[in-house]
Each structure stands twice: as structure tokens, then as C-alpha cells.
Amino acid sequence: MIKPYFLILALVVVSFTATAKDNRQQFATYGLGGESCAVYSSARAAGGERELQVRQWLAGYITAFNLIVADTYDIFGSTDYDGMIEWLDDRCSKYPRANLTNTVARFTEITHSYRKQYMPQK
């Protein structure tokens, strides 16, 4: 079942695509994305409900990215969700003070050229 906040996140992201950043490339960040990598790492270590919240936020971010970025069916390309989690675990251990949204955005920048641009044929 899709949680209502996934739908809300997608609608908010889609409705503001024209003004994604200001002229200095700055943007407001809300919710879990405004937290630091240290908060992400702590949630991963604790497990349970907090980790589930972080994982759901990440899934919503990636889904919204796939929705709004042109020529993108799946940003994961040759990796997958678990590959992203491993990358985030490593990155956040190196940069614990980094903003989570910016860290996930960096992941998408790296994987963008490897993305799947079309739905795979069955």
C-alpha cells in the first residue's frame, strides 16, 4: 500500500518543478531530507520504525525523481535500492554533517548517466 505522504511528496515535487531552485541554486528542504547524514546513520543503526521512515522517505524521493526528470524510467540503472543504501551508508559515514537531501541528490548525479531511460521490454 502506498502511504499518503508518498503521494503528497510526488504532488508537491511535480507542482514546483518550474521553481525547483532559486537563482543561487538554493532550495528549502523539509521533513527527513532536512536532517543530517548522522541522523540517517543513527536511524539505520537503530532499525525499527525510524529506519522504516527513512527508507520510505528515500523511496519517495527516488520515485519523485523518476517521475519528474526527463528521459528517466529508473535512476538506479545498473544498481538497485540496496545498492543506494550501501552507497548512502558509506557516504554518510564519511560526511555525517551533510544534508540528507543533498547526499541523495549526489547519488542521483552519479547514477544519472547509467539510468534506465525506458521501461524494460518483457
Gist of the model:
By secondary structure, the chain is mainly alpha-helical. The chain has helices spanning 4-15, 37-46, 48-68, 81-94, 100-111.
Number of strands: 0
Strand content: under 5%
Major sheet details: none
Shape: globular
Cα gyration radius (Å): 14 Å
Number of helices in the DSSP assignment: 5
Q: State mean pLDDT (0 to 100 scale).
A: 86
Question: How far apart are the termini?
Answer: 25 Å
Number of domains: 1
Helix-strand makeup class: mainly alpha
Order of helices and strands: HHHHH
Low-confidence stretches: 6-19
Proportion of helical residues: 55-70%
What does this structure look like?
It is a single chain. The protein is 57% helix and 0% strand. It is globular. The chain has helices at 4-15, 37-46, 48-68, 81-94, 100-111. The protein has one domain. It has 122 residues and is an all-alpha fold. The model is unreliable at 6-19 (pLDDT under 50). The two termini are 25 Å apart.
